[in-house]
Automatic annotation (TrEMBL):
Region (Disordered): 362-383
Predominant location category: membrane
Family, as annotated: Belongs to the short-chain dehydrogenases/reductases (SDR) family.
Domain of life from the UniProt record: Eukaryota
The protein's name: Short-chain dehydrogenase/reductase 3
Species whose genome carries this gene: Sporormia fimetaria CBS 119925
GO cellular component, one term: membrane
Length: 383
């Protein structure tokens, strides 16, 4: 499953991202536009053409300015988010932990890493579901560790097992996620706790287990898979959006903390905020969807670069999603209300975490594990 280059046509077809990339590599590419500008200013023939086509020359100067500003912005993004520090990753030695790596986006992330021979520990409540691959026949670089991400004790036990098998991991990809798809009054305590335990609190407990070694070596990476929902809350997914907003805040906070308080400026932090993706968890959600392969490739590309990054997919989301809160209130509130229909046909599947099911069974005086709501059966790793 080779990773597609940015010059390849997206799986989703021709999108606004396709047009944006084309403009970036042509009209807004200083490598192409600056020579034209210099020719127009310092050659006789170029000067004549510029005089004859004054409006076009004006647009050329604007394109040069915008292209240079864009490249400068990208350079500053890279320099500041990486604390003006370089680091080297040896993929024969790195150990990657992927939560929710048995299915959905996480499954594809693990496959892409495994194809490169990178050692991967999959933490999931489900066993591996890869085509032609299970826990017995998985590649030698991949191992599965059962974990209940709603339980801190289970997380610590799984992390100890990973360290015993691989040594201290250098990259943590917090990918597992869940959604219940209910309005506030229909949401039970179990629904709310499950959503926050998996989507947010597990990030803290996992980082506490793996960060000390990263800090000691001033080397490592923490990847947070959030969502557009971190910026934009809609009806019938308040708990999901709130948990993803908290995950985004976790990423932003840990990015600053490792560089200052924890004195490990070479530790990288990556966040992926993706829009609606074609996974089982959000089946029936309204809106144009990304393919999970597209999101997984974006995550793996960032990991392989060994650089901090703040990613939105589709990229056109930068034009609206983070800027939403700067809009007038009537526009913000009006937009959220208009998005009520997005969850009207949602029928996402999930696999419930054992600890919360057992608590519910005990509370109800039942023996064994409680029943699973078929309309909401959690599949970890799918956003």
């Amino acid at each position: 499953m080779p990773i597609r280059s940015e010059y390849s046509l997206a799986r989703e077809g021709v999108t606004l991202d396709t047009i944006g990339r084309a403009l970036k590599h042509t009209v807004l590419n200083p490598v192409l536009t600056i020579p034209l500008l210099l020719a127009a200013r310092y050659t006789q023939q170029g000067g004549q053409l510029a005089a004859q086509h004054a409006p076009a020359f004006k647009y050329l100067k604007a394109a040069v300015a915008l292209g240079v500003l864009q490249r400068l912005g990208l350079w500053l993004d890279d320099a500041v988010t990486n604390n003006f520090e370089n680091d080297t990753y040896d993929w024969n030695k790195e150990v990657v932990v992927v939560t929710g790596g048995s299915d959905g986006i996480g499954k594809i992330v693990v496959q892409l890493l495994a194809e490169r021979g990178i050692k991967v520990a999959v933490l999931d409540v489900q066993e591996l579901t890869y085509d032609g691959m299970d826990t017995v026949f998985a590649p030698p670089s991949v191992r599965y560790f059962n974990v209940d991400l709603a339980s801190r004790d289970s997380i610590i036990e799984a992390c100890d097992a990973v360290k015993a098998a691989f040594g201290n991991p250098t990259i943590l990809i917090n990918n597992a996620g869940c959604a219940r798809g209910k309005n506030l009054l229909d949401s039970t305590e179990k629904d709310i706790r499950l959503t926050f335990n998996v989507n947010t609190l597990s990030h803290y407990f996992l980082a506490q287990q793996f960060l000390p070694s990263m800090i000691k070596n001033n080397h490592g990476m923490i990847v947070t898979v959030a969502s557009f929902a971190a910026y934009l809350t809609t009806p019938n997914m308040i708990d999901y959006a709130s948990s993803k907003a908290a995950a985004l805040a976790f990423h932003e906070g840990i990015s600053a903390e490792v560089a200052t308080v924890l004195k490990a400026p070479k530790i990288r932090t990556v966040v992926m905020c993706q829009g609606y993706t074609r996974t089982k968890l959000f089946e029936g959600f309204g809106g144009r969807a990304l393919y999970p392969e597209t999101v997984a490739e974006g995550i793996v590309k960032a990991v392989l670069k060994g650089k901090s990054a703040h990613l939105l997919l589709p990229e056109v989301g930068w034009l609206l999603v983070p800027l939403l809160r700067t809009l007038p209130l009537w526009m913000q509130y009006g937009l959220r209300k208009r998005l009520e229909s997005l969850m009207s046909n949602w029928r996402g599947r999930q696999v419930v975490q054992p600890s919360l099911e057992q608590k519910e069974a005990v509370a109800q005086g039942e023996n064994g594990v409680g029943k699973v709501d078929e309309s909401a059966v959690l599949v970890p790793g799918e956003q």
